Amino acid sequence: MSLGRYNFAKLTRTLVLLVSTGVMAAQLAGCVGGNNGGSAGEGDADSGKQAVESENKAEGSGTGGSNQVAGLAAIDKANGLKNQLDSQAKEVDYVTGAAKKELESTGEGRRHHSGKKHRKNRSKASASRSGNSDRGASDKGSVEVVAQAQPSGKTTRASSSAPVSDQSMVTLATWNLENFFDTVDDPYEDEVLSQREYADKLGRVSAVLQEVDADIVGVEEIENDKILEEVSKRSGYPYFVLVPGNDKFRGINVGVLSKVPIRNYVSHAGDRFSSGGKRTAFSRDCLEVHFKHKSNLTLLANHFKSKRGGDQSDPKRLAQATRVKEIAESLKNYPVAICGDLNDTPNAKTLRPLLQTAGLTDVLGHLPESSRLSFFSKRYQSALDYIIVNDKLKPAVVKGSAKVCSDIPNISKASDHRPVKVTLNLDKI
Questions:
Q1: Where are the domains of the chain?
Q2: Distance CA 289, CA 297 (A)
């Protein structure tokens, strides 16, 4: 992997925003010049087939030795500014350090992108993150880009050497794992499981996933990639991805498990959009995953704002649904599935952008609500989990295959949610 993967011109623009001084802008402009003429003036840019749609992304813009030399020079200059300001310089160091560490740690096979663990004090540096994206310029959505950086948590994904899949029948599922935390007491408000509780949770979740037997699973309420890696090994999923998102309170994230090779992924955790006249973001992430399949199958994995706060939580969920719709529309040339715990019912106004919009179809939409209940608590039951497909993917949906997996033995001991799944015949696209 070359340093050219990252658009250091955009990284330089981030540093200019952070230090906000003309002198530093001039210095950083020198870095831009060393990056083969990259442009730091644009807030949103594409490089080749890559498109950046979020705030804190590191984007690939080519390969080659000259890019490597220029890229390292850019990092050295950026790090050289660290001592000029106090708190702002810490942010500079974070951005350049995360990008450099990602480059140095990437290798062939299963890749481990390492950095600091998800922490509350990352709030200033948090924003969107990306892997390699093949999305072209025509796919670019409207999003405010503030900063460019790699994920500061550890993310693992599949080998780029895996062949393109031509698998015809692919089963897609989504499942909220209900508070799947590890045994480490982190600085945020996570739950800490005992070794015995963790082993029990891991065993029960893995058993359910094996029973569901889906080829691709979007998962919600999982703390980190270490847990997801263990789940993948126990459940038979060679490929997975998780990018730490925006939940600074509990530290729960969304991820994807897959038996189909993963081509690349884009985190939208840094997207900023309007909610009731205020700027807001995804509560966790909208994780965009492109699969290495001849159909170019794409998944948007989500976990929307909860209903805590009653009606006051509605505007944020509505804004998140609207943004997901915009992302899906920007991917109209791809077969796209939207999945996840959307935290509201099918008739809710907050989900109208996804459920009552031309070009998107809820695969469970033909069922009465009583047959699509996917959340079970002591107080009530509700339909909160969804798989929605765009018109490009709709012909692949196998009639009668969409269902809530509520008949799996002992599933209530694994989670308070039930998996939702559908079978796709990708030869029909």
A1: 3-153, 169-428
A2: 9
The whole-angstrom separation of Cα 335 and Cα 425 is: 12
Alpha carbons 44 and 48: distance in angstroms, whole number? 14
The tens-digit pLDDT sequence of the chain (429 residues) is 333 333 433 443 443 333 333 433 333 333 333 333 333 333 333 333 333 333 333 333 333 333 433 443 443 444 443 333 333 333 333 333 333 333 333 332 233 332 333 333 333 222 333 344 445 333 333 332 222 223 333 344 455 689 999 999 999 999 999 999 999 998 888 889 999 999 999 999 999 999 999 999 999 999 999 999 999 999 999 999 999 999 999 999 999 999 999 999 999 999 999 998 899 999 999 999 999 999 999 999 999 999 998 899 999 999 999 999 999 999 999 999 999 999 999 999 999 999 999 999 999 999 988 899 999 998 899 999 999 999 999 999 999 999 999 999 999 999 999 999 999 999 999
With the C-alpha atoms ordered 77, 81, 87, 88, is the resulting torsion angle positive or negative?
Answer: negative
Which token pair is 92?
A: 């500079």
Q: What is the H or E stretch that residue 266 is in?
A: strand 262-267
Tell me the two tokens of residue 199: 């082993």
Instruction: Find the helix packing angle between 22-33 and 65-80, rounded to 10°.
Output: 170
Q: Report the chain's terminal Cα–Cα distance, integer Å.
A: 33
Task: Provide the 10 A C-beta neighbour count for residue 72.
Answer: 15
User: Under DSSP, is residue 356 helix (H, G, I), strand (E, B) or coil?
Assistant: coil
Q: Which two tokens stand for residue 69?
A: 């030399």
Within 8 A by CB and 6+ apart from 60, the residues are 4, 5, 6, 7, 47, 48, 50, 132
Strand 273-275 vs strand 286-291: parallel, antiparallel, or unpaired?
unpaired
Q: Per CATH, the architecture of 169-428 is what?
A: 4-Layer Sandwich (3.60)
